[in-house]
């Protein structure tokens, strides 16, 4: 039986961080799941177009790649998203999954980095992420982790993470977003309440690409770094994407393994209102 793992990320035009993150994760998956061939897709159509235009690099969309796998006669496909939360881009992947779910003998969809947290002892995505943060962040008085942000209802994942940090006595780690809530105003208010003087700022994103280099650490006065410095904070920039860390990669691989084994397939779902 021909089997494939399709690793799906938002993508990046920054080839340096592409190698450090997405390619690194793909290679780790390739070495662990030797019965599967590993393929790549990006959900950002803008990034896909820019890569072709500027670098001559062609990356398929999820639906383009699934169509190719179908035409090549693959029987089993596992979709592995490298997104941080289950927002708009994950909805896109789910839509494509539903389009192709009847074309393969087996097709499964893994979950993003932050998705489940609840009664099931074996599925604590937020708890596991918080444990990893303790190991990968350099020593500092306080921290601001900046995610992408979204208007999608799953934007509440950022607040759920903040709550989890507080529950674990890690109130000095604050979550902000480039687009959405919480933004700089809310984070600044909480930093001042902490009485912090020195802040380490880092992207809470898979790759340290455009948002990290410009919106977070850029030279413009409205970058997160410059806004914090303008308020009197001594700022240290930690410009590394989450995908650079082995501990984060292992979380994604655990989610992939759950999907292959069929773990938690019915968790958070209902059959009510569905015709038999």
Automatic annotation (TrEMBL):
Keywords: Cobalt, Metal-binding
Annotated Gene3D superfamilies: 3.40.50.1400
Pfam family, one: CbiK
InterPro entries: Anaerobic_Co-chelatase
Positions with a binding annotation for Co(2+): 148, 179, 211
Active site, renumbered: 148 (proton acceptor)
Originating organism: Clostridium fallax
Official protein name in the record: Anaerobic cobaltochelatase
GO terms classed as biological process: anaerobic cobalamin biosynthetic process
GO molecular function: metal ion binding; sirohydrochlorin cobaltochelatase activity
Lineage start: Bacteria, Bacillati, Bacillota, Clostridia, Eubacteriales
């Amino acid at each position: 039986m021909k089997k494939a793992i399709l690793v799906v990320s938002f993508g990046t035009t920054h080839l340096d961080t592409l190698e450090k993150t997405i390619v690194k994760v793909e290679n780790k998956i390739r070495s662990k799941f030797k019965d599967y061939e590993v393929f790549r897709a990006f959900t950002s159509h803008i990034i896909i177009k820019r890569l072709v235009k500027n670098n001559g690099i062609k990356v398929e969309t999820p639906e383009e790649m699934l169509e190719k796998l179908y035409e090549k006669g693959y029987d089993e496909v596992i979709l592995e998203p490298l997104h941080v939360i289950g927002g708009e881009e994950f909805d896109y992947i789910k839509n494509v999954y539903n389009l192709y779910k009847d074309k393969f003998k087996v097709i499964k969809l893994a979950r993003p980095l932050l998705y489940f947290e609840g009664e099931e002892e074996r599925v604590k995505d937020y708890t596991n992420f918080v444990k990893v943060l303790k190991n990968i962040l350099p020593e500092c008085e306080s921290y601001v982790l900046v995610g992408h942000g979204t208007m999608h209802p799953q934007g509440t994942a950022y607040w759920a993470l903040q709550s989890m940090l507080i529950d674990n006595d890690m109130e000095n780690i604050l979550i902000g977003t480039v687009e959405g809530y919480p933004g700089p105003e809310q984070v600044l208010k909480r930093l001042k309440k902490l009485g912090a003087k020195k802040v380490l700022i880092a992207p809470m994103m898979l790759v340290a690409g455009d948002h990290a280099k410009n919106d977070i650490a850029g030279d413009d006065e409205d970058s997160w770094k410059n806004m914090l410095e303008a308020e009197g904070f001594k700022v240290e920039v930690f410009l590394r994407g989450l995908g650079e860390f082995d501990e984060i990669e292992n979380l994604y691989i655990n989610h992939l393994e759950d999907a292959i084994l069929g773990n938690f397939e019915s968790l958070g779902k209902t059959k009510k209102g569905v015709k038999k």
